Every structure is written in C-alpha cells, then in structure tokens.
Amino acid sequence: MFSDRLFSAQLHELFLRTRTSTLLALAAIPVLAGLHLEAVPLPKVAMWTVAMLGIYLIRVLIAQAFLRFYNKTGESNPLWLDIEVMAAAAAGAALGGSLFLLDSGQLDMLYTLKLAFIAAAAAFTMNSLAIVRFVYMAYLLPLFSAAIAHTLMETPFLPMSARYGLIASSLVYGGMLLVLSGGIQRLNREALVKRIEHGDLSEELAAARASEQALREQLEAQTREMESTQLQMHVYATHDPLTRVFNRHRICEALVRELHLRRRYGIPVSVLVVEIDGFADVATRFGQARSDELLVSFASFLAADLREIDYAGRWSGAKFCCVLPRTNGHEAHECAERVRRQIDGLCFVGSLPELTITASFGTSEAVEGDDPERILARADAALYAARCTGGNNSKALEANVENAADIATNAATNAATNAAMTAATNATTNADPAGATTQTTTDGR
Predict the structure, then answer these.
(1) Around 40, how many Cα atoms within 13 Å sit in the side-chain half-sphere?
(2) CATH number of 248-423
(3) Burial of 237 (0-12, 13-18, 19+ CB in 10 A)
(4) Would you kindly state where each structural domain of the chain is located, as residue ranges?
(5) How many CB atoms neighbour CB 189 within 10 A?
(6) Disulfide-capable partner of 185 in 133, 151, 159, 295 (CB 3.0 to 4.6 Å)?
(7) Structure pTM?
C-alpha cells in the first residue's frame, strides 16, 4: 500500500539525516565539555561527556543498522520508529542534563553558552528529526523540561522575574520550533510523495519501454518470418521444385521483359531450347530416382554454364528453355553448339558412370512484332528439326513463321515415315526369316 511505502520512505529519510546530524554533533560535545574543566569538577564533566558520546554513538549505530536493513529488504518496521523515539528522548535528556552536571552555580559566560548550545541544538536537530514530528517532540520534551526545571531549581543567582521570563522565553521558543517542525514535516512528506510517484512513473515507463521493446522484437520476428515466407512463396512461384531453376512461368515473364526492351531500345534477345536425347529410356533403364538426379545435375550444369544475365528454366519433362539477353541469332547458335559439345558423352550421375547423354538444341532470335509464343514456337521447331536428324545436334531457325511451320511439318512427316518403315521392316523380319536372309544376301552381293 502507498501509506506503507510512504512510512518506509519517511523512516529511511529520518535515519539517513539522523546519522549525518549525529556525527556532526559528536564534535561539539568535547568542545563544550572542555570549556567547563576549570569551573566544574572533572568527574561531572567526564560523566556528562561519556553519557553524551555513548548516546550519540548508539544513535549512529541504530541509524546504520536500519539503513543496512532497508537497503537489503526494502521494507521497514514500526519497531524502528519506537527505538528512534527512545534514542531521541535520551539525547534530549542528556543534553538538558548538561545544565545540572556542568553547572557553575553563577550567572557567567558558561551558563549563557549552555543555553545558546541547547537552543542551537534544538534548531539544528529539527532538520533531521522533524521528518517524523513525533520523534522531534520526543527530543524537545525532555530537553526543555530539564531547562525549565534547572531554571526553577538551580538558578538562585537570578531574580524571580528573570526566571519566569526565561521559562516563558523557552516555552515560546519551543512552540515556534514545533510550528516550524510541522511545516518541515509537511514539506518533506510532499517531497517523499512526489519521489514515490516519480519512482512509480519511472517503473511504469521502464515497463512500457520493455513491453514496447518486446513488441518491437516480436514484430521484427514476425516481419522476418513474413519476409522468409514471401521469399519461399516467390521461390515456389518462380522456380521448378525439382531442379531449382526457373519454371515456365518465370521464363515467360523474363521473355516478355526482354522483348519489351528489344522493342524500346533495340537490344537483341534470343531463345535457346534444349532437350535431353532419349530421356524416356533413361527412366526405363535406371528408374525415376536416377532420372530425377540426371535432371537436377543437368539443370545445374546448364545454369552454371550460361551468363549471369541469362535465364535458364525447365520447360517440361526433359526440355529446358533459356532466354539469352543481348544475344543475336548467330551468337545463340554458337552458345548452343558450345554447350552441346560439352554435354556430349558427359556423365551427370556420379553413381552411374555408364550413363552418358547427349542433347538437342534449337535457337531463334526475336524480331520486330514477336511475342513469346512466336519466338518459342520457332525455337521449339528448330529443336524438333535437330531431334529429327538423330539428336546430338543444334539448329537455328530464322524469324519466318511459315518456314517454322513447314520445318515442323516436314520433321513430323519424316519422323512418322521412319517409324512406319521401321515397324514394317520388323514385321517382315518376324514373319519370314528366310526371306530376310535372302534379302541380306542379295544386298550383300
């Protein structure tokens, strides 16, 4: 509760100031005692000095013990206030006892000095003890009671009117000190309340900053996660899941962009289409896993062999399509030939050294008015023409749509004719083995 915290803060401030003021007052005790050595018997001076030093040292130790306890636990106990009240009353009584123990029995400078010392001590102590007004009252009550008692009992050298005047002055002075102590207590209380509120606000601000930092870190983590997810989605949307090269959609996007640059700035661009020869036989002989491994190795080789500005992607099956920016038709065909020679007889599956492949290539350069479908159709027609020659070849097709259609038609016709002739020959051989032997012999002749 706030009241408990305020009480703890008041006790902490009380003992902190008490320790400082008591240590400062220790130096004045021997000075006052030393001034009475010639006028007062030594035993009385020694008794008062030892009592005062003992009481003040005990107050210092009490204050130190409380501060250590408070700093360790952050809590307080009302018992500490009771102890300080008793210690303050003892200090006030001991100081008031100086009028009796250090009494010279006459109106001299020492008597005036003791009164001045008591008045100064009462005012000086108010700064520390008025934090809790009740403690200050416990200090003043025995102090002024001893002063009034001494005035009534031990001042025969003063006339009765002077005694009453001194008592009245003491009461007025004590009343003024109590009034001032009330103001000091109020001001200190307000300052402690502000300090506690400021501490609460600082803690709330620190908690808010920590919460903000946690939310910011969480937001940054979510942002990184979203960016990672978006990057993965982008990779999935633009790359072939098996070979990790570009997919058909991304190749078309790149081709559209490069065709736009060609129309606007006249920058040449060509398309290269390549297909592994006899890939279906590879899958049949070695299985799907080996054929997939072949595709991955082939795609990596193709992407690494081309330039950084080129786009290499998987079109379908064992067919790959490459967009070659800043490349004319002649350069594209040279690139196809270079790659074809490197592939010829190369093993792409380390665990199958006997598996060597060849590939067929088709290239075509973009011309005015081309769109992705047209240039891809020409490159595909060139690839088909290269395959019809038996594979392991490259063909370039000029920008003539009718010519591309004718070549594709002728290639398809030739392929169909060759297949039909092969089938007929196999059927004849199976039906008439003797005739086949005769035909071979006749041909041999």
Answers:
(1) 25
(2) 3.30.70.270
(3) exposed
(4) 2-207, 248-423
(5) 17
(6) 133
(7) 0.55
